[in-house]
Amino acid sequence: MTQANFKARPAAKSYHGIATMRRYLPDTFTLLLVCTVILASFLPIHGAYADVFGIATDIAIGLLFFLHGARLSRDTVVAGALHWRLHLTILLTTFCIFPLLGLAIGLIPTSVLAAPLYTGILFLCVLPSTVQSSIAFTSMAGGNVPAAIVSASGSNIFGMFLTPLLTGLVLSTTGGGGFSWDALQSILLQLMLPFVVGQILQPWIGNWIRSRKKLLMPVDRGSILMVVYLAFSEAVMEGLWHTFSLGDIAAVILVDMMLLATVLCITMFGSRLLGFSKEDEITITFCGSKKSLASGVPMANAIFGNASSSVGAIVLPLMLFHQVQLMACAVIAQKYAARLKEKTEAKPLAA
Fold it and tell me: Does the UniProt entry include the keyword Electron transport (predicted)?
């Protein structure tokens, strides 16, 4: 070994350590969310300015779901749609197991988990899966990527109908209200209609939009930040930070962590018991355990925007869950990837 190679190895090891640490740190979008909440806490928008900003936010959200529809390729849908057992397993986890766990969390006394925050936990449990991060982690871990694309996208499509229905159902069981046709109509107009229009135009504009992912990313993230700023501004004006203490926030984080750990165990070990391949197990684990912040925040605004409940308090558990799931799944994806690498390197030796 030459002296140059000997000196290069510690530097490479140090770089690998820094790269590993970065995976566990909050991503840029999470930091922007934190900054948005801080801005809303000190400079909340209200009055006529809030009305105008609300209209701009609705337009941005419509554009967001239009782009989601235009990005989803028909070939991708056909490629992954045939794996019905995998998709059914993920959908049952997302829209059945999660809500049942949310209802079980209701056994925690309100002295530990405040009622508005528990409403946020229930709402989190009926949301669809994420799209981008589910696919990214599945790809990183060596899972079934086409199936992940179809399943995550399908979860969001079904979620436009199932989330308002399940929200009314779980809230009615806890005395928090029932199903609202106005909420469903609002979601169909604000989210579903732009999505369908995007799907119709997909053959003509889909490739152009997919080739300009970085250019259009500000629409994705900017629209969510706008909704968060508007929701938290209203919540701050209603006394959000005077209502909840640091202990309340800590309780939500612990509940989010327990909820995620439970679902990860169910999806990981359950997929093995059901006889799925390792690639499908990875897809089920990542798609079935996630909850979408991108869909959840606009849906919360549509469902609870005209209610007496504070939208800011309701989306707070979701925002915290978002970071918890990213950190946990980054670790799990690396474990899966490391095992796959070891298995791949062992095959030539065995031969």
Answer: no
3-state DSSP helix/strand/coil percent for the chain, to nearest 5?
Answer: 85, 0, 15
**170 domain residue, yes or no:** yes
Sign of CA dihedral 114, 120, 125, 129: negative
The CATH number covering residue 189 comes to 1.20.1530.20
Using the CB atoms, write b or e for 104-132: b if 16+ within 10 Å: eebeeeeeebbebbbbbbbbbbbbbbbbe
Q: What is the pTM of this model?
A: 0.76
Question: What proportion of the chain, given as a percentage, has pLDDT over 70?
Answer: 79
The helix or strand, by DSSP H or E, that contains position 315, with its residue range, turns out to be helix 311-350
> What is the number of domains present in the chain?
1
Dihedral angle over CA of 29, 295, 278, 347, nearest 10: -30
Angle between helices 115-125 and 246-273 (to 10 degrees): 30
Domain that holds residue 46: 35-337
How do residues 249-292 score in pLDDT, each as one tens digit?
999 999 999 999 999 999 999 999 999 999 999 999 999 999 98
Average pLDDT over residues 310-332: 85
Q: 1-15, 112-126, 203-217, 233-247: which has the minimum mean pLDDT?
A: 1-15
DSSP characters over 181-211: HHHHHHHIIIIIHHHHHHHHHHHHHHHHHHT
User: Residue type for 177, please?
Assistant: G
Q: Does any domain span residue 342?
A: no
